Amino acid sequence: MSPRRNRSKGSDSSGRSAEDDRSGRYGGWQSTENWQGDEWNVRHVAGASAEGKTYRCPGCDQMIPSGLPHVVAWPEHSGVDERRHWHKACWNAKDRRTTRVRRSRNPPRF
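Above: the chain sequence. Below: its structure as tokens.
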């Protein structure tokens, strides 16, 4: 029988606390990028974290299927309501896209 290890519950083996890396629970990492003159928080989401959920990408106006790795981005000084889920390729190509995506006549608004 091996001896019991006495570690605090709030830290992992690297010594960081669980609150230091909240983005890790979503299976990705978070960074800050400058786009359109604003600072944007960008979180990379692993496919396993998106299981059972679908989102509409604002870059291409297509659905992001359940379980697909993608990017969540929002302006730094805004709330939860401003978060948008992007395909990774669409987020990387955001500067090459037009400013408005044209929708068909009666699509659902997300």
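The first strand starts at residue 30 and ends at 35.
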